[in-house]
Amino acid sequence: MEEIALEATGLSKHYRRTRALDNCTVRVPVGRVSALVGPNGAGKTTLMSLACGLRTPTAGEVSVLGQRPDNKGMPDGVAFLSQDKPLYRGFNVSEMLHAASKLNSDFDEDRARRLVADADVPLKAKVKTLSGGQRTRVALAIALGRRPRLIILDEPLADLDPLARKQVMQTLMSDVAEFGTTVVMSSHVLADLEEVCDHLVLLASGHVQLCDEVENLLDNHRLAVGPGIEGEPPFPRESIVEASRTRRETTLLLRQSTDDGPPDWDISSPSLEELVLAYMRTKEAAK
Ligand SMILES: Nc1ncnc2c1ncn2[C@@H]1O[C@H](COP(=O)(O)OP(=O)(O)OP(=O)(O)O)[C@@H](O)[C@H]1O
């Protein structure tokens, strides 16, 4: 049976009246690079915090690498890069790496120093003087220095320029290739994820909209472009995820795994971005 890196079953987290997560079931197999996507407030940070034991569920269960997280620290083999990247502001980068190595028994300080050097962050620079992007690179070096089997990253690309985004993704991918690390990463930059992710979790308003291998998702959906007709499109209503119309053209995202359709319709495979945006728009429209 396939090993599961992150599993949530019937997971809910409510903050007073807000249902940040509601009865969510998620499975990310070991070895995947999983994109956790969804609009602002969808529940992505909440899901990651529950997986790392930083918050406790209101209902349901979550496990990472077969362990139930608790409030006694990060589960074994798991590293988390949070949005606020907690680093000691008064330390310089070298001291920060040294502190990380003292706090983590198996810490690979050489690797962390190499990653910081690759990012051109000076070892002597004080953490408080670093730019947001440089702080991300240092925090990522520390997270990977812990040699995690599962790394969970909350919007790691947010502060980065396009070149740095590519470099961070390359760093992660070389870790995946070398050590088989599982990556779960939230981001709003779908174009960056499309190249590297082989698994996707889409959350919207605290619900799981999609959770599957990217290949399966793409195989099981089609984009259909046809005439700008009035009335019902010539496809089963239950297969239509989203429909948009102009006077000249109708565009449908279909839950369909073949290229079958009427001759005046053009059927093609959607990009991951088209697929995700269509699901996000339907959820928005249903609010
Ligand atoms: N500590 C908290 N107290 C009350 N409500 C909270 C708390 N943390 C999150 N929420 C609410 O829970 C919902 C989900 O928030 P969460 O931060 O998990 O979303 P997100 O998908 O990570 O959003 P973003 O993309 O904007 O970072 C939001 O409505 C948010 O306002």
UniProtKB/TrEMBL annotation:
Keywords: ATP-binding, Nucleotide-binding, Transport
SUPFAM superfamilies for this protein: P-loop containing nucleoside triphosphate hydrolases (SSF52540)
InterPro entries with a match to the protein in the record: AAA+_ATPase, ABC_transporter-like_ATP-bd, ABC_transporter-like_CS, ABC_Transporter_VariousFunc, P-loop_NTPase
Pfam assignment, any one: ABC_tran
Domain ABC transporter: 6-230
Keyword ATP-binding: yes
GO molecular function, one term: ATP hydrolysis activity
Record protein name field: ABC transporter related protein
Organism listed in the record: Stackebrandtia nassauensis (strain DSM 44728 / CIP 108903 / NRRL B-16338 / NBRC 102104 / LLR-40K-21)
